[in-house]
Amino acid sequence: MAHCMETHDEGGLRVTRFGPLGAFANNAYIAGDLASREAVLIDMPAGSAEVVTSIQQDKWLIKAILLTHSHPDHWADYDLVRSSIAAPVMANAGEQIIPGEKVDLPLDDEQVIDVGPYRMKALHTPGHTPGSTCLLLSRFLFSGDVLFPGGPGRTQSPADLKQSIASITSKLLPLPEETMVLPGHGDGTTIGAAKAEYAAFASRKHPADLCGDVTWAG
């Protein structure tokens, strides 16, 4: 079984986190409606065999495989997952690292994907990568590598960091404070905690060339 399999239930909605998976300690998530068994799979890192097994055992009907972004660690088990699950792979058109033929459908900003009676909304949040996309389903935010406990995801340049912070402050921090943030690696946090951490960061001056592995605490 997974090194860690963590399940959150809210009404008829179930979210399961698998991780840490593979050499980069990735997370993969299944989010599904218990009544209809409709679900989506979020990311397909190395080590996804156990995720596929869980999907088959729990008889989930996967509607879509959603990529938060196209860094290779998030789709390392593409072939394994696609050979087992007949669902389209979706990613934002701004992603350049994954070959185009591997993406079946675009994942646009504000796009809604129905999961049983639940509506998942895609939020384009560039910065970590050009097409980074967070996914909001009820009180769960799948944040990819955009937002982690304690800081934003790694950025390659000061311009990327500015863009990522703009994405976080405009799209994510306005969400309800109890929203659970479920990132692409490691443990989760809440929007309330992230807002407080960011406020401390924003209250201080920072060097103009700030980028890379940045924490809100500095």
Task: Please give the structural blueprint.
Elements: E1 5-10, E2 13-21, E3 26-33, E4 38-42, H1 49-57, E5 61-66, H2 78-84, E6 89-91, E7 105-106, E8 112-115, E9 118-124, E10 133-137, E11 140-144, E12 147-148, E13 151-152, H3 158-172, E14 180-183, E15 189-190, H4 191-202
Parallel strand pairs: 4-5, 5-6, 6-7, 11-14
Antiparallel strand pairs: 1-2, 2-3, 3-4, 8-9, 9-10, 10-11, 12-13, 14-15
Structural write-up:
By secondary structure, the chain is α/β, with parallel strands linked by helices. The protein has one domain: Metallo-beta-lactamase, Chain A. Helix content is 20%, strand content 32%. It contains four helices and 15 strands. A seven-stranded mixed beta sheet has the order 1-2-3-4-5-6-7, with helices on one face. Strand 8 and strand 9 (118-124) form a beta hairpin.
Keywords:
218 residues; Metallo-beta-lactamase, Chain A; 7-stranded mixed β-sheet; globular
If you compute it from the alpha carbons, what radius of gyration comes out, rounded to the nearest whole angstrom?
16 Å
Share in helix: 10-25%
**Unreliable parts:** none
Helix/sheet category: alpha/beta
CATH superfamily: Ribonuclease Z/Hydroxyacylglutathione hydrolase-like
Number of helices: 4
Write down how many β-strands occur, each being a DSSP E stretch of 2 or more residues. 15
Separation of the first and last Cα atoms: 37 Å
What letter string, H or E per element, gives the SSE order?
EEEEHEHEEEEEEEEHEEH
Query: What is the typical, i.e. mean, pLDDT?
Result: 96
> Biggest β-sheet: count, sense, barrel?
7 strands, mixed
What would CATH call the class? Alpha Beta
CATH fold assignment? Metallo-beta-lactamase, Chain A
Molecular shape: globular
Strand order of the largest sheet: 1-2-3-4-5-6-7
How many domains make up the 3D coordinates? 1
Beta-strand residue percentage: 25-35%
By CATH, the architecture is named: 4-Layer Sandwich
